[in-house]
Design brief:
By secondary structure, this protein is of the alpha/beta class. The chain has helices at residues 2-13, 19-53, 71-82, 102-110, 118-128, 138-145, 159-165, 188-212, 218-222, 242-251, 254-279, 282-288, 293-330, 343-346, 349-375, 380-395, 398-403, 411-417, 423-432, 436-462, 465-468, 473-481, and strands at residues 55-61, 90-96, 151-155, 172-175, 230-233, 236-239. Strand 1, helix 3 (71-82) and strand 2 (90-96) form a beta-alpha-beta unit.
Length: 490
């Protein structure tokens, strides 16, 4: 019995040596690696273009406030002085413009006697109250954008007035559309310009504090609280936030993808192999050998478990390569791709056994579903089509776990548990939450489904259906009754 089972298992594992299997493993890895490098190179070249050429910023300042109190000019001077000469990202050109609302200019002239006394100036501005700006000169802005400017920032005439009044002030930003707006990274400059606007606001905070509250530390006002995050997990307090410890690209991404690939590949490969054996007439030869049908089923299932697991692991390796090649081009090398710092605490021996058993049962269930589908198919094409239609509704809920947070107490979790391909993810959640009971329930359910499908598959292989295939039994019986010159009446 053991030798028969090993022989069948070796026969099923021959697929690993086939060129199409090796190409099927290597090509996705190679393609994902190349795509990751292409995407990373696109980001890197966009960033290098910004750092080498810089972003041409035209600032049209219509604020008529005197230079010694002009908030925007002071902020702009701070930004210009803070940029290193060798790495100058923003090529800022200041253009002073006459205010469209001349009444503000008249107000500043009337307040000239208070310019050296900031407190008195602010008190007078509070008495006068709010003033409004005019419309930006769009003809001038359009002219700059049609030539050298990447962005034009218009500073209205009431900018400093609003700052001293303690009111949120405005700037108007006009972007030039990218040369290739359909490129994934054609809008990188826009992101850098948004950072410039953020930098303006931050620098304005520092300026206001330093100018009007001398001696008060600006860093304290801007960032008064410094967080030191810790996470309580399994009775331990671990340094770092949950995002840093477990990562959004870790268990929430890799495990559902792996289960999706494992389920689909085990099912479709088993069904396709059955269809291929039927087309090549090797299945009939195998069934005529002095080998117990049960051993044939077990050997095929074990072979598909091994093959599907290998395929899923290599696909995950390809995804990790893709993310690593992408992130290495746009981020520091010490950034963790998987982000599962706390996995050593999760994958104890007990946890590894539970997760490993669930993966084996999941691959086995997929393989037996494929064998059952292949038994009713008469060609590889039919088997592949039917298996895809059957497995997709069962495997797609894996993506539900990627985007919808579900607690172990959520009733939807037990509804999803009925899908055998989802139990590995549920076990993963149970291990994270240190809930061994739900892990044992999932394993018991998977074991029950596994044994039930093993029984059904073994009965199917013991019947003539596996030889006849499809739904041809009735037609074959009719043809046999009409053979020869004598018609048999029933």
């Amino acid at each position: 019995m053991r030798s028969d089972l090993i022989t069948i298992l070796k026969k099923e594992l021959r697929i690993i040596k086939r060129r199409d299997f090796i190409l099927g493993i290597m090509m996705p890895i190679l393609i994902l690696y190349i795509i990751g490098n292409i995407v990373g190179t696109g980001v890197k070249s966009s960033v290098e273009e910004i750092t080498s050429e810089g972003i041409n910023v035209i600032v049209i300042c219509a604020d008529p406030a005197p230079e010694n109190v002009n908030a925007f000019l002071s902020v702009l001077a701070i930004i210009n002085s803070s940029q290193e000469e060798g790495v100058k990202i923003y090529n800022i050109r200041l253009v002073k413009s006459a205010p469209t609302n001349t009444s503000i200019e008249d107000l500043w002239r009337s307040l000239s006697e208070y310019q050296d006394n900031i407190t008195a100036l602010i008190n007078r501005i509070y008495v006068i109250g709010e003033v409004h700006s005019g419309n930006p000169p769009e003809d001038i802005i359009r002219n700059y954008l049609s030539h050298e400017a990447d962005v034009v920032i218009y500073v209205p005439e009431n900018f400093t007035w609003d700052v001293l009044l303690g009111k949120s002030t405005n700037v108007y930003t006009y972007y030039k559309s990218p040369e290739d707006p359909f490129s994934m990274f054609g809008n990188v400059k826009s992101g850098a310009i948004n950072q410039f606007i953020t930098l303006l606001g931050k620098t304005l905070n520092y300026f206001i504090i330093a100018k009007y509250y001398p001696g008060f530390p600006p860093n304290f006002v801007y960032n008064p609280i410094v967080e030191h995050p810790y996470t309580y997990y399994k009775g331990k307090i671990i340094a770092g936030s949950p995002e840093e410890l477990f990562g959004t690209l870790g268990a929430g991404f890799i495990i559902p993808i792996m289960m999706f690939l494992l389920a689909t590949y085990a099912t479709t490969t088993a069904a396709s192999n059955m269809g291929e054996e039927r087309e090549n007439k090797t299945l009939e030869t195998l069934l005529t050998l002095p080998v117990r049908r049960r051993n044939i089923v077990i050997g095929k299932v074990l072979g598909m478990i091994v093959v599907a697991t290998i395929m899923a692991v290599f696909y995950i390796f390809g995804l990790v390569l893709y993310m690593k090649s992408l992130m290495n081009s746009i981020a520091e090398e010490n950034i963790s791709i998987i982000g599962l710092t706390g996995m050593s605490d999760i994958f104890t021996v007990k946890g590894a056994l539970l997760l490993g058993a669930s993966i084996v049962f999941t691959a086995g269930i997929g393989a037996m579903i494929g064998l059952i589908i292949g038994s009713f198919s008469d060609s590889v094409r039919t088997a592949s089509t039917i298996s895809s239609l059957v497995v997709m509704p069962l495997a797609l809920p894996a993506f539900f776990f990627m985007y919808v947070p579900i607690r172990l107490s959520d009733p939807k979790l037990y509804l999803l548990m009925l899908d055998p391909f989802m139990n590995t993810i549920i076990i993963m959640k149970g291990l994270f939450a240190n809930n061994i009971m739900i892990c044992l329930i999932s394993i018991s359910y998977l074991l029950g489904i596994f044994l039930a499908l093993l029984y059904v598959t073994a009965r199917l292989f013991n019947s003539e259906r596996v030889i006849l295939g499809g739904f041809k039994k009735k037609s074959i019986l009719k043809r046999s009754l009409h053979m020869g010159s004598v018609r048999i009446k029933i």
